[in-house]
Amino acid sequence: MAHFFVNITHGANDLDRATVGLVLAKNAVDAGHQVTLFLSLDGVHLARADSYLLGLQEPTFPPLDELRRHLVEHGAKIWVCAGCYKKRGLEEGAFIPHAQLVSAGEAIQILASGVVPVYY
Questions:
Q1: Tell me: domain 1-58+75-101, CATH 3.40.1260.10, correct?
Q2: Taking burial as the number of CB atoms within 10 A of a residue's CB, which of 22, 37, 64, 73 is the most buried?
Q3: Residues near 65 by Cβ (< 8 Å), separated by ≥ 6?
Q4: What is the mean predicted confidence (pLDDT) over 28-36?
Q5: pLDDT, tens digit, for every residue of 79-104?
Q6: CB-based burial of residue 79 (10 Å sphere; 0-12 exposed, 13-18 middle, 19+ buried)?
Q7: 77 DSSP assignment
């Protein structure tokens, strides 16, 4: 099976892109593929542990909190860009326990390994 590296750069600021990125990742894990969800820029908000995701839903799609929960329950890695969350005034403890804070170097390393990159 393939390893998908899904980089989502949006949250509530562009709900369409955030939703489609999460749906693609969900479909990949459901098909048995490995998924690393890399949340960068405003996408870091998708890993927040507070109520940020509640009520965020595009018409005809599942709510964002359901999509994220599905990904966590099915083994997707959730990576949060370390520089991006700091720029947005978030603290390390602001994220779900499953989220891992990573550097740009770690993202480059996985991209160099031959994963399938997808960007939203």
A1: yes
A2: 37
A3: 53, 54, 56
A4: 98
A5: 999 999 999 999 999 999 999 999 99
A6: buried
A7: E
Q: State which H helix or E strand residue 23 sits in.
A: helix 15-30
Please provide the DSSP assignment of 24-56 as one string: HHHHHHHTT-EEEEEE-GGGGGGGBSSSTTTT-
CB atoms within 10 A of CB 27: 12
pTM: 0.95
Between CA 83 and CA 74, with CA 72 as vertex, the angle to 5 degrees is 135
Contact at 8 Å (CB) between 39 and 80? yes
By the 8 A CB rule, do 39 and 81 touch?
yes
